[in-house]
Amino acid sequence: MAIKRAHIYVSGSVQGVWFRATAQGVAIDGNLTGWVRNLRDGRVELVAEGAEEELEKLVQWCAVGTDAAEVTDVAVTWSDPTHEFGAFLSGETA
């Protein structure tokens, strides 16, 4: 099982619709570490590390989001993990 890092940007109507909290739950369920936060430009940014299969599930979830979200784009950059995270956290707006 390959361990990877995904840096994800989600565009659309994704703030104020429980996107961050639900994404955090999806990540925790997949034993992923990292963080999620809102960006001032209206996007949501995630950095997650863990099993490649679980990261793929998170990316697939991001493409749909919550029932109230309207996702228009998901951009993912894959890299090697840094192992810098101990949990998956939801942060403040950056």
Question: How would you portray this structure in words?
Answer:
By secondary structure, this protein is an alpha+beta fold. The chain has a single domain (3-83), classed as 2-Layer Sandwich (Alpha-Beta Plaits), CATH 3.30.70.100. The protein has helices at 19-29, 52-64, and strands spanning 3-13, 33-38, 44-51, 70-79, 88-90. A 5-stranded mixed sheet has the order 4-1-3-2-5, covered by helices on one side. Strand 2 (33-38) and strand 3 (44-51) form a beta hairpin. The radius of gyration is 12 Å and the shape is globular. The model has no long low-confidence stretch (mean pLDDT 96).
Mean pLDDT: 96
Individual helix count: 2
Structural class: alpha+beta
Strand content: 35-45%
